[in-house]
Write a structure and sequence with these properties.
mainly alpha
């Protein structure tokens, strides 16, 4: 098992696409969490209420929310692409037979891929936290504001919530890749759901249909948004307090287990070719 995990980690670490996804996630989080708001803040009068609230959102006390605020939408989409690449590239390269000819069982290879997703998404979440913490410290120093950091419990909850959301989207990508046996179509369908359908349901269907509004409480995106809200994210697309944090945690964890189970069952039952 450890040999399979080590081989998968080496393979994924040598893929430039994975590092590009991580760089894009960090760049977008910094751009929409700090660079653009701070550029807008410099154009306001220093004493206006909007200037004070805008600056407060970028200080160290709020860096947890800025780190996880993108995970319900754009950072989650990048995690989904990561999951597709890890699980679906074997179909594109036609290397499943070569991998299994080395004697590991299908479930051992699949478990190694899930372990790689878990470690990769944890690396991504920690990178986002490091970037936002650094940016908030720089802004606080530039504006002569105190460095008031969140407590260890809040930090632990934020990292755990971010990792749970990222791993859920990555496992969805892996399940789609195994279901559709490829890379391009799973990425396309996953992004359509994550970036378009979820927003249409929330903004158009839910206000008109009660059953859609009720169903929102059990869909992965809104629950990821509620988890990000509980971690401190505010005024971000896809983030709201639609359900309680405990409810959101259980639903996101249930989807994570379901996506992993579906991918494993299909890989075990179907032909590789």
């Amino acid at each position: 098992m450890l040999t399979n995990v080590r081989a998968e980690l080496v393979k994924q670490a040598r893929r430039p696409a994975n590092w590009l996804l991580l760089a894009v996630a960090a760049a977008l989080t910094l751009a929409f969490g700090y660079l653009i708001p701070y550029a807008g803040l410099t154009g306001m009068a220093s004493g206006t209420p909007a200037a004070d609230s805008g600056l407060a959102a970028m200080l160290p006390e709020m860096f947890l929310g800025n780190a996880v605020g993108g995970l319900p939408i754009f950072a989650g989409a990048l995690a989904l692409i990561f999951g597709v690449l890890v699980a679906g590239s074997e179909y594109g390269w036609d290397t499943w037979k070569a991998v299994l000819a080395q004697r590991p069982a299908r479930m051992s290879v699949y478990a190694a891929k899930l372990a790689t997703l878990a470690l990769g998404t944890m690396l991504g979440v920690l990178t986002l936290f490091a970037c936002t913490a650094t940016a908030s410290a720089v802004i606080a120093s530039a504006e002569s504001q105190p460095l008031d950091w969140p407590g260890p419990l809040d930090l632990g909850f934020g990292i755990g919530a971010g990792w749970l959301m990222a791993l859920m989207w990555a496992s969805l990508g892996a399940a789609l890749a195994i279901t559709l046996r490829g890379v391009a179509l799973p990425i396309g369908l996953g992004l359509v759901w994550l970036l378009a359908v979820q927003n249409l349901l929330a903004t158009i269907a839910a206000p008109l249909l009660d059953w859609v509004a009720s169903a929102q409480e059990w869909l992965p995106g809104p629950n990821a948004g509620a988890l990000a809200y509980a971690a401190g994210a505010r005024d971000t697309p896809g983030v709201s307090d639609i359900v309680e944090p405990g409810h959101a945690t259980l639903v996101v964890a249930a989807y994570l287990l379901a996506f992993c189970a579906v991918g494993g069952w299909l890989l075990h039952r179907r032909d590789i070719a």
